[in-house]
Amino acid sequence: MSEEKNLNFIEEIISQDLASGKYDQILTRFPPEPNGYLHIGHAKSICLNFGLATHFGGGTNLRFDDTNPTTEETEYVDSIKADLKWLGFSWAKECYASDYFDTLYGFAVQLIEKGLAYVDDSSPEEIALQKGTPTAAGTGNEYRNRSIAENLELFTNMKAGKYADGAKVLRAKIDLANPNMLLRDPILYRIKKAHHHRTGDKWCIYPMYDFAHGQSDAIEKITHSICTLEFIPHRALYDWGIENLGIYPSKQYEFSRLNITYTILSKRKLLQLVQEGYVNSWDDPRMPTISGMRRRGYTPESIRDFCDRIGIAKRENIIDFSLLEFCVREHLNKIAQRRMVVTDPIKLVITNYDKGEEILHSENNPEDPEGGLRAVPFSNELYIQRDDFMEEPTKKYFRLGPGLMVRLKSAYIVKCDSFEKDAAGIVQTVYVSYVPESKSGSDTSGIHVKGTLHWVSAKHAVPVVLNEYDRLFKVENVDNAEGDFKDYINEQSLTKTNAWAEPALITDALDMRFQFLRKGYFYQDITSTKDALVFNRTVTLKDAWAKEQKK
Ligand code: ATP
Ligand code: MG
Predict the structure, then answer these.
(1) According to CATH, where is 1.10.1160.10 located in the chain?
(2) CATH class of residue range 4-255
(3) Can 257 be counted among the known catalytic residues?
(4) 163-206 pLDDT per residue, tens
(5) If you measure from the C-alpha of residue 366 to the centroid of ligand 2, how many angstroms do you get, rounded to a whole number?
(6) Ligand 1 centroid vs 39 CA: distance in angstroms?
(7) How far, in Å, CA of 245 to CA of 233, rounded?
(8) Least enclosed by CB within 10 Å: which of 130, 303, 482, 503?
(9) Closest residue CA from atom 18 of ligand 1
């Protein structure tokens, strides 16, 4: 979007904070939990956090929020870093909440010493019950009155592994009658005898999100800690921790998370799709993950453009998937190399073409004056699309049929003279004659035709497989649909089609973006080899979906 756009509410706050001298420089953070691959929702948070730092001058830390040992893996850490780099961002520091476990433990001891935390032996059910309800105050228990000395000893024992998982927790001592349920003595530490991907078996107690996040922000001196709306009730606790520990006063701000039609954006649910085989992997091109989108052929530019267009709001909403596709199409139209690929072929024989074959030249990208030309072999036997021929053409049919003329893209004008059917009555061959002086670029024929067809030379063509993708879900708002989200999976989300392609595709670079004429934008799949070319359809040429819905 243009530079003159209005500041969003977070940008407003930051410019005021800088103008008033509250900060000299800002520091934001992107704090993923390494329990899955990043999705397009994370991209919104990434573009926001890194974008603010770039815009206002400052930095962004990448912080792995790895306080939950049982769901986290190094594979996820690596994928998150790769995705961020691919999106085009570099972080000021790579941090791990687990690097702060010693400091956080010290913070907890400080709270105990101040009489602001206690060890509770109650079960989770008892704790929930004693918390009361939003309209009724909670009741305390005898553990709440433990002495500081006793709490210190018990907490030391917790750390030393003397108790079983769940036998005790450390709780903040705040206010059992607070209207904000999160302030009713929240749990700070739990016992979990689990191996951690970085700290190994050093710890058997782990801090809760609310006793790690704000504290990690403060340790790193984050100025603006931006999270999604569901954390609004946590803000009071965030501030309580910072105040009572007397640490760096990071501030939390909230914006609405991204929701997109026809998809889900939850790592937990995406993990189910992978584990239960609904998709092949986290980077399956149907997945709303960054790695899936990359494999499908989306560009980082188009994802950043999308995040910019949707903007930042304080209210939940759901964004149309076609807006994302629009952004992808916009960018690909500018950069994609045009190529010709024929699916469902019918043979075209040029009866008066006696040169045997020749090399023609076709524009790589009409949108790009520097795009250049590529060589395309032409011969007297071509393949065209079956549906570009009609035995008995209707009135407004501008493609081929008996007596009709069309232009073959970047080649000649041809006229259909006859056709031949097989025993089953299916047209197999169309016979045409070409107009020698109608060659594209030096056409002196004076003939005007309405239709232009794409084609490949039969003997030069290479076989390719096209993976054509559709929405992964059948309903618009998957999160709000009744029952299990997996009931709404679109069984036809992948169609594999065999096709014939012009030979340039064999030598084209792996990372090239293509527009297969009249078919869509395509990108070579990671499984593709020179002997078995496979292309993923990144996006259709037009928004067929929107049209479908208007019917
Ligand atoms: P999920 O529910 O998919 O696991 P999460 O919020 O638990 O998402 P985290 O790894 O904790 O995932 O998220 C890292 C950052 O990305 C957080 O700041 C979070 O608020 C943000 N984020 C996650 N999902 C979205 C979304 N859909 N839209 C915007 N920001 C998001
Ligand atoms: Mg989370």
Answers:
(1) 267-337+464-549
(2) alpha beta
(3) yes
(4) 999 999 999 999 999 999 999 999 999 999 999 999 999 999 99
(5) 45
(6) 9
(7) 20
(8) 482
(9) 227
